[in-house]
Amino acid sequence: MKELKKILQSLKIRNKVKKKLCFFLGNTKKLETKGYYITPIRENRNFIFFGAIVFNDFVTKKILKIIDGKVDIILIDIEKKIKSKNKKVRLVNIERSAKDVVKKTKIYVYKANDLAVNAAETLLYNIFLNDKRGLGGKKILILGIGNIGFKIALKFVESGSIVSVYRRQKKLLNNFVKTINQIKPQGTISKVNVLNKYPPIFKNYDVVLTTADRTNIVSIKNLEGITKKTILIDVGKGNFSNESINYLRSKKIDVYRLDTTSSYFSYLDNVFFTYNQYNKISYIKKIKNYRFISQGIAGQKDDIILDDLTSPKKIIGICNGNGGLNKHNLREKKLILKKIKKIFKINLSYD
């Protein structure tokens, strides 16, 4: 815990511009001998964040007592997935532990697996950005399909990819594939295919994603004849053996180690935006005979939707009482703006 205290002290000194300081507390289904480990510090224009991965409730509470009051926000992974080392096998509930211990800092939740899925999706969209078909028609192999692999497979099928999946437990594999093919949009022609045997070589695929919770599942044999045309992404971290990475390096072929940093920053933006937008103190404001509301609120007839009730810059629209907005021509909009300007004493625009 000394390391944790040193990090907090260093961030206090470092954060001179008063960025939002955020702490992510995650868990994993893997059982570790250590009670926790600290994740790297990440920083952008608005946020600084770091975190810890924990493996039992006792350590969770100990960390949170140190963190409480020292950061702007604590985010808890709500996926209950750690098996305790007690005699009774049960899931460790770090969300409950946090709400029992934390008294000063705001608590929010997140799902680490979903952030990994978003990062993988964004990475591939970026790689094929200049391809006219994007991911459409691309042959994608997903190895070790589980929670993350399932969600990735569904997303890429929806994008028109030809997805093939493999895992050792055949019953689960078939259930995953059947479910994806049932819940995908009816208009989506692409589907997920079952691989009953581990594919010996990868060269015929456009993309290979490894999402297994085991190490070294990719060997040199799998990479025979592979070229730079095949995109390799290690989602599970450590799925490629050292020999296979060295082999690929000799061929000047890169392996992407999935980086979820961008997903975490995007999620923080979403959290703070949502909090501000749906803050009950600020999303409805009555002034004179007018009722102003924030975006995202189902308004009553004649309610005026503003982009920001505290410092408005524009009118989004005026509610018609049926879930929609009234239609106004340019002349009507100018009259409305003239009336509203008298209230806020500033110039507004009207979408």
Give the tags:
single chain, 351 residues, 9 helices
Give an account of the 3D structure.
33% of the residues lie in helices and 22% in strands. The strands form three sheets. A six-stranded parallel beta sheet has the order 8-7-6-9-10-11, covered by helices on one side. It has a five-stranded mixed beta sheet with strand order 2-3-1-4-5, sandwiched between helices. Strands 12-13-14-15-16 form a five-stranded mixed beta sheet, with helices on one face. The mean pLDDT is 90. Helix 5 links the parallel strand 6 and strand 7. By secondary structure, the chain is α/β, with parallel strands linked by helices. The protein contains nine helices and 16 strands. It is globular, with a radius of gyration of 25 Å. The termini are far apart. Helix 2 packs parallel to helix 3.
Task: Provide a quick synopsis of the model.
The protein has 351 residues and is α/β, with parallel strands linked by helices.
| Element order: H for helix, E for strand | HEEEHEHEHEHEHEEEHEHEEEEHE
Question: How confident overall, as mean pLDDT?
Answer: 90
**Largest sheet report:** 6 strands, parallel
Class based on secondary structure composition and strand pairing: alpha/beta
Number of strand elements: 16
Q: Helix share of residues? A: 25-40%
Poorly predicted sequence stretches spanning 5 or more consecutive residues: none
Task: Compute the separation of the termini in Å.
Answer: 53 Å
Number of helices: 9
Strand order of the largest sheet: 8-7-6-9-10-11
Over the alpha carbons, how many angstroms does the gyration radius reach? 25 Å
Beta percentage is: 15-25%
Tell the overall outline: globular
